[in-house]
UniProtKB/TrEMBL annotation:
GO-annotated cellular components: endoplasmic reticulum
Pfam families documented for this protein: Sulfatase, Sulfatase_C
Species of origin: Sinocyclocheilus anshuiensis
GO molecular function: arylsulfatase activity; metal ion binding
Protein name as catalogued: Arylsulfatase D-like
Gene: arsh
Keyword Metal-binding carried by entry: yes
Keyword terms of this UniProt record: Calcium, Hydrolase, Membrane, Metal-binding, Transmembrane, Transmembrane helix
Length: 582
């Protein structure tokens, strides 16, 4: 296994021997890791977080057997930046994955933006410690930079020995009949433009044919060419989007294009179980990144109609089954006391989806809202029998970014010293050696914009949240951005507050009562201290290449992953898939 570890040079026998020694010497002392992340799950969708109508017995058992975090926070309210922060232990804008405009996530698998090759993931550091690393499920951090097979952003280039799953994500175009999900207004504009130009060209030809006016052939031809170009710019990247974006890869190979959602969950679980079985002698890290519960919703046979909450509830209950299968595998192999298991969501539920979206409990807002708690407060559960006392709850502020230093230290690795890390080791909190979070301040971004700041004063149990701007809900009186389907972070879509809005979350977790000098004697101190913290934080930011510009996110045919000969990309994975080699 070490021969395929990037930390072990093929041409350096000494490094290979050292890597083998590390792998052997820590065989029994260091934990395995199973990290499970759901897509778009609301914190209120889980039984142990207050839901009493959706059945989640396996996630609830995970919490009962371990430690539940009740103030666990995503570092961003959308998939791509949140997962960037999770992988690197750093705010996403440090890697160039923040946006100043409407495009805040990777939109095309054949774009050139993604997680830069010079970023260090926890998987890279665990490889150096002799771990076998795998990701099964969703990636959504890019694939290629300059050519179809350079795989500069691919999981295999970011420390994962094995990858099986969706290099993009599940979105509406992946499910026939579910509608469109990418730049719908741009698609409509291109279609209307091409239709109008075609009509103009035909009109000129008709006028010329009837001899009503003298019309230049070149003008009619020019309009026809423009119409064809507009039609091509609409049809090729957008109407074929299911083929381009909705694929399954095994390591660097496309094995299904487009994906068949109806069997996806079973295949993901099969691959995850096989990975653990192959590496039961450890040490290993598995990141199980589920495609559920992002729309379009889909469930496997046997889960339809089970929940009181319709198709969305069915999805959550299938997620719970998948968590249960993972727990069962670890227990069957006798790995429970050797394995740290973790469960979370990448951000809050998508409330604008209505019954097809998640519920964020008592928390205001949802997906894409970087300030309101509903967009960033997520489930956080750790289980490690024999090491973590069962049934504990930690109410201190913690972050998805904290997973990075936690797993690296437990694996015996050294944290990088050539870059700023924003995550903190969670083990002192999880083990009860301290009752205080290492996060005095947390910075909540929406794209590139600092949306809010959380302050947990060292001399107080209070947790203050300062909002610099809030999204403009639409229509008037709504609790989300229903007119645009999702909230945005810039321009006319937000309202800046001067002075900022301030809430005290310990007493007002729903953020419904802004503080005033009459209700909070420390208000001036809060604003002054947060202002200083923001200044200090911004000094740590350095310019990097931005990965979510239009030039990087738009479709480039020469970067399109393809099975077969481009553009005739089509293949179906066999029902009897063989275990992939790392």
């Amino acid at each position: 296994m070490c021969l395929k570890n990037k930390a072990c040079s093929v041409h350096d026998n000494i490094n290979r021997i050292q890597c083998l020694i590390i792998k052997t010497s820590y065989h029994d002392s260091r934990p395995n890791f199973v990290l499970m992340m759901v897509d778009d799950l609301g914190i209120g969708d889980i039984g142990c977080y207050g839901n009493d109508t959706i059945s989640t017995p396996n996630v609830d058992r995970l919490a009962a057997d371990g430690v539940k975090l009740s103030q666990h926070l995503a570092a961003a309210p959308l998939c791509t930046p949140s997962r960037t922060a999770f992988m690197t232990g750093r705010y996403a804008l440090r890697a160039g994955l923040g946006s100043t405009g409407r495009v805040q996530v990777i939109l095309f698998l054949a774009g050139s933006g993604g997680l830069p090759p010079n970023e260090t993931t926890f998987a890279k550091l665990l490889q150096k410690q002799g771990y076998t690393t795998g990701i099964v499920g969703k990636w959504h951090l890019g694939v290629n930079c300059e050519s179809r097979n350079d795989h500069c952003h691919h999981p295999n280039n970011h420390g994962f020995d094995f990858f099986y799953g969706l290099p993009f994500t599940n979105f509406n175009d992946c499910k026939p009949g579910a509608g469109k999900g990418v730049l719908v207004d741009v698609q409509e504009t291109l279609w209307q433009m091409s239709a109008l130009l075609a009509l103009a060209s035909l009109t000129l030809l008709a006028v010329r044919a009837s001899a009503l006016l003298r019309v230049s052939w070149s003008l009619a031809a020019f309009l026809a060419v423009l119409s064809l170009l507009g039609f091509t710019a609409w049809f090729v990247p957008f109407e074929l989007l299911r083929t381009w974006n909705c694929i399954i890869m095994r390591n660097g190979e496309v094995v299904e294009q487009p994906v068949k959602l109806e069997t996806l969950s079973a295949r993901l679980m099969s691959e995850a179980e096989r990975f653990v079985e192959r590496h039961k002698d450890g040490p290993f890290l598995l990141f199980l990144s589920l495609a559920h519960v992002h729309t379009p919703l889909f469930v496997s046979e046997g889960f339809t109609g089970k929940s009181k909450h319709g198709l969305y509830g069915d999805n959550v209950e299938e997620v719970d089954w998948m968590v249960g299968k993972m727990m069962e595998t670890i227990e069957r192999l006798g790995l429970s006391e050797k394995t740290l298991m973790y469960f979370t969501s990448d951000h809050g539920g998508h409330i604008e989806e209505g019954p097809k979206g998640g519920w964020n409990g008592i928390y205001r807002g949802g997906k894409a809202m970087g300030g309101w708690e509903g967009g960033i407060r997520v489930p956080g559960i750790f289980r490690w029998p024999g090491r973590l006392n069962p049934g504990r709850e930690v109410a201190e502020p913690t972050s998805l970014m904290d997973v990075f230093p936690t797993v690296v230290k437990l694996a015996g690795g050294t944290l990088p010293e050539d870059r700023i890390l924003d995550g903190r080791d969670l083990m002192p909190l999880l083990e009860g050696r301290t009752n205080r979070s290492q996060h005095e301040f947390m910075f909540h971004y929406c794209g590139m914009y600092l949306n809010a700041v959380r302050w947990h004063p060292p001399d107080s149990d209070s947790i203050f949240k300062v909002h610099f701007f809030t999204p403009n809900f639409s229509p008037a009186g709504a609790v989300g951005c229903y007119d645009t389907s999702i909230c945005m972070c810039h321009g006319e879509f937000v309202t800046y507050h001067s002075p900022p809005l301030v809430f005290e979350l310990s007493g007002d977790p729903s953020e419904s009562r802004p503080l005033s000098p009459d209700t909070e004697p420390r208000l001036a101190e809060v604003l002054e201290r947060v202002e200083r913290a923001v200044t200090e934080h911004r000094r740590t930011l350095t310019p990097v290449e931005r990965q979510l510009t239009w030039a990087k996110v738009l479709w480039k045919p020469w970067l399109q992953p393809c099975c077969g000969t481009f553009p005739f990309c089509s293949c179906e994975e066999s029902n009897h898939t063989s275990a992939g080699a790392e």
